[in-house]
């Protein structure tokens, strides 16, 4: 086609035509003059063109033209010294040539600068422009030739070494064939090589696999070493190098999905939405590691799964509870028998993408041992500055974890090392109120339990009274795990009755009476803590890893030689808190008009039931003072009043932790009034008002304010 041809060319005469085997033709032509195509005309078997010939004078004069010609010859000499394949006669011919146009054309012919640049030289409007372009192309090609020579020099030693290795490998294969080995290469070798051709694998991984394939080819297919080598190659090839899932970063859709999957937890949901917003704007995972801290059964693990669903990412979970070997995180070195990659790399392989949501469950349950400290190994995994170059001991090459969204969970931060805790952003899930548990049961637990029991064809619902009965009389927990088990138990009993032939309507409700019939006598009574207190008792609020609790502080004056006796499995901090409480009472006895002589020569016994449960912390200080105050006055404290706070010798009430859990426990037990340190007021204000409905909060700065409450003065 005429469109495939240049508009400038050379008119040439055909000097010789040689017929080659298989129908080929070799044509020898001699160029005569430049020409420009004015128009093409299509003939039956060929194209015909009307040309305009471009004549140039042989040697345009002028000093500048002479200088250009000499410079072109000088640069071409340097070019020839770097290009040994050009015949020596070319240098001789050009150096003796006087016609400047012929000099320019000869140099243009032998200069290997590509078809496009040679066409530009041919189309130059005059000799001056041709020389200008020629000098530029000569300099470029000289630089390229110099670089090629340097590369050849650097590769020479390596090439000789590679040739030697190739020859040795060929000889070794011939020897193996003589011995009857390797005659037929196992099919998995070709499979590995085919997989390795995929461009998604980084160069270091390719090199590792190629090295291992060389070794594998020299092994007997049935040997133990071959199995080890194959396992290593397959692990490297099956990791999701370069595979990413596409994130769904729709804020409104994320909020809607979180609301559907979890009830309450407004602060936690808002923080997760913020994280998604940052990811949308920055295009990468937020730097901080989200750690969900709360008692069992409050939905930490399911929240992690929900985040993966919101983002459209794969979800993987690693249970860290009881792990004491560092190799469980980093993997075993291949020198060990049965070596395998660590849990991080194994879960990445399972996820199949480089950017899953990875939940590290029970991070507070890691333990140290002689095999190392797995918590220290997690430092590299969770540090955004380091995890893009994470190296597992087994794969022995860098793996990028920077796109993984890590979420960790814990019941308490007490078991997390400070260096690890520093990399985490804590999101606390204090537990659910009875109101929240009621809604969770109605919206999630009952439908789920009905499906598990095979009762999907029956419209079974629980009355609010029935669910509240289970919550208050059959469970004592911050979460809803035990509540779910009790609902499951009721559903199973109904399923058994249906299978046994008892008829049920398609739609019916479970009442409080039916709950007690199915579950038996309640293990907890709502009135357990509603009995009137006797002198020497006070209600305190405690935090435990499974939620808040209301505990009774008991005191009595008994015969004995030591001034203070403490029982109830108390820790050192709580023991010191009790001693501080007694010292405060003695220092303020006259001011409060207390009969301190009752303590002379006697022992003050302080007991915190239940005795088998370990207790520690300073937050029972104000309750212990209140119990001693009640004992010495011989007047009972209000049974509707519970308190928490650390006491000092001067009577100041200091802030304590776990306030949300403690207030939920107070509401669960029906306590109407709660004393809280004034410094904890922000913790209370963060809680939803409906959760604290019916509970009066009294903020205090000193023990004197609590004494005024006990006396009825405030």
Which helices and strands appear, and what pairs or packs with what?
Layout: E1 8-19, E2 25-42, E3 47-54, H1 63-82, H2 88-96, H3 100-110, H4 115-123, H5 127-178, H6 187-196, H7 203-217, H8 224-238, H9 251-261, H10 266-282, E4 289-293, H11 300-311, E5 315-319, H12 327-330, H13 343-351, E6 357-361, H14 374-382, E7 390-391, E8 398-399, E9 405-410, H15 418-421, E10 424-428, H16 434-452, E11 459-462, H17 464-474, H18 481-499, E12 507-510, H19 512-519, E13 537-544, E14 547-559, E15 564-567, H20 572-588, E16 602-607, H21 621-633, E17 641-643, E18 646-647, E19 653-654, H22 659-668, E20 673-677, H23 681-685, E21 696-700, H24 703-711
Parallel strand pairs: 4-9, 4-10, 5-6, 6-9, 11-12, 13-17, 15-16, 17-20, 20-21
Antiparallel strand pairs: 1-2, 2-3, 7-8, 13-14, 14-16, 18-19
Helix pairs in contact: 1-2, 1-3, 1-5, 3-5, 4-5, 6-7, 7-8, 9-10, 9-11, 16-17, 16-18, 17-19, 20-21, 21-24
Overview of this protein structure:
With 714 residues, the chain is of the alpha/beta class. It has five domains: 53 residues, Roll (Archaeosine Trna-guanine Transglycosylase, Chain: A, domain 4); 55 residues, no CATH class; 154 residues, Rossmann fold (3-Layer(aba) Sandwich), CATH 3.40.50; 86 residues, Helicase, Ruva Protein, domain 3, CATH 1.10.8.60; 175 residues, Ribosomal Protein S5, domain 2 (2-Layer Sandwich). It contains 24 helices and 21 strands. The chain has a seven-stranded mixed β-sheet with strand order 15-16-14-13-17-20-21. Strand 13 and strand 14 form a beta hairpin. It is elongated, with a radius of gyration of 43 Å. The chain starts with 7 loop residues before the first strand and ends with a helix. The relative contact order is 0.05.
């Amino acid at each position: 086609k005429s469109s495939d041809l240049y508009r400038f060319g050379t008119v040439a005469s055909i000097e010789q035509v040689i017929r080659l085997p298989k129908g080929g033709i070799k044509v020898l032509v001699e160029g005569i003059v430049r020409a420009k195509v004015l128009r093409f005309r299509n003939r039956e078997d060929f194209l015909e063109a009307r040309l305009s010939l471009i004549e140039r004078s042989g040697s345009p004069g002028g000093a500048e033209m002479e200088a250009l010609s000499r410079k072109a010859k000088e640069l071409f000499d340097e070019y020839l010294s770097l290009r040994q394949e050009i015949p020596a006669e070319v240098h001789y011919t050009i150096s003796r040539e006087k016609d400047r146009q012929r000099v320019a054309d000869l140099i243009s012919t032998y200069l290997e600068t590509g078809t496009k640049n040679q066409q530009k030289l041919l189309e130059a409007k005059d000799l001056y422009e041709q020389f200008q372009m020629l000098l530029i192309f000569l300099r470029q090609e000289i630089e390229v030739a110099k670089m090629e020579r340097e590369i050849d020099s650097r590769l020479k030693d390596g090439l000789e070494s590679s040739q030697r290795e190739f020859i040795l490998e060929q000889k070794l294969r011939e020897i193996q064939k003589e011995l009857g080995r390797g005659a037929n290469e196992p099919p998995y070798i070709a499979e590995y090589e085919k997989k390795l051709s995929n461009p998604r694998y980084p160069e270091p991984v390719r090199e590792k696999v190629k090295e291992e394939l060389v070794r594998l080819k020299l092994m007997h297919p049935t040997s133990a070493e071959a199995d080890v080598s194959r396992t290593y190659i397959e692990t490297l090839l099956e990791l999701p190098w370069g595979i990413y899932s596409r994130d769904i970063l729709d804020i409104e859709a994320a909020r809607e999905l979180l609301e559907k999957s979890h009830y309450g937890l407004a602060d936690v949901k808002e923080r997760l939405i913020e994280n998604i917003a940052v990811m949308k704007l920055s295009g990468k995972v937020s730097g901080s590691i989200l750690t969900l801290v709360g008692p069992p059964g409050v939905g930490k693990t399911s929240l992690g799964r929900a985040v993966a669903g919101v983002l459209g990412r794969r979800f993987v979970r690693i249970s860290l509870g009881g792990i004491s070997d560092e190799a469980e995180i980093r993997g075993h070195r291949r020198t060990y028998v049965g070596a395998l990659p660590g849990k991080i790399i194994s879960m990445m392989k399972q996820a199949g993408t480089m950017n899953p949501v990875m939940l590290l469950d029970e991070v507070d349950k890691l333990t140290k041992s002689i095999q190392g400290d797995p918590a220290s190994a997690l430092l590299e995994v969770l540090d955004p500055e380091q995890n893009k170059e994470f190296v597992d001991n087994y794969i022995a090459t860098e793996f990028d974890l920077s796109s993984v969204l890590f979420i960790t969970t814990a019941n308490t931060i007490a078991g997390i090392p400070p260096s690890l805790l520093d990399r985490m952003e804590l999101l606390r899930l204090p537990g659910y109120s009875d109101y929240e548990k009621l809604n969770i049961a109605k919206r999630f637990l009952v439908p789920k339990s009905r499906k598990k029991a095979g009762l999907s064809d029956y419209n079974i619902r629980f009355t609010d009274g029935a669910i509240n009965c289970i919550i208050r009389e059959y469970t004592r927990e911050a979460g809803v795990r035990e509540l779910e088990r009790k609902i499951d138990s009721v559903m199973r009993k109904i399923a058994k009755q249906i299978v046994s032939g008892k008829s049920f309507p398609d739609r019916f409700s479970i009442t409080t009476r039916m709950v007690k019939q199915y579950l038996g006598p309640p293990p907890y009574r709502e009135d357990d803590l509603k009995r009137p207190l006797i002198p020497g008792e006070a209600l305190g609020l405690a935090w435990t890893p499974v939620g808040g609790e209301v505990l009774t502080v008991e005191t009595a004056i008994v015969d004995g030689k030591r001034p203070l006796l403490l029982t109830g499995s108390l820790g050192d901090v709580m023991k010191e808190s009790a001693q501080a409480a007694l010292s405060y009472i003695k220092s303020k006895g006259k001011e409060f008009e207390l009969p301190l002589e009752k303590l002379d020569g006697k022992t003050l016994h302080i007991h915190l039931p239940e005795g088998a449960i370990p207790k520690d912390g300073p937050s029972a200080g104000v309750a212990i003072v209140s119990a001693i105050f009640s004992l010495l006055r011989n007047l009972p404290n209000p049974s509707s009043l519970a308190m928490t706070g650390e006491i000092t010798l001067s009577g100041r009430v200091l802030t304590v932790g776990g306030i949300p859990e403690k207030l939920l426990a107070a509401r669960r037990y029906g306590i109407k009034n709660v004393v809280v340190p004034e410094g904890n007021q922000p913790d209370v204000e963060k809680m939803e008002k409906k959760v604290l409905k019916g509970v009066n909060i009294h903020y205090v700065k000193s023990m004197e304010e609590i004494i005024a409450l006990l006396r009825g003065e405030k």
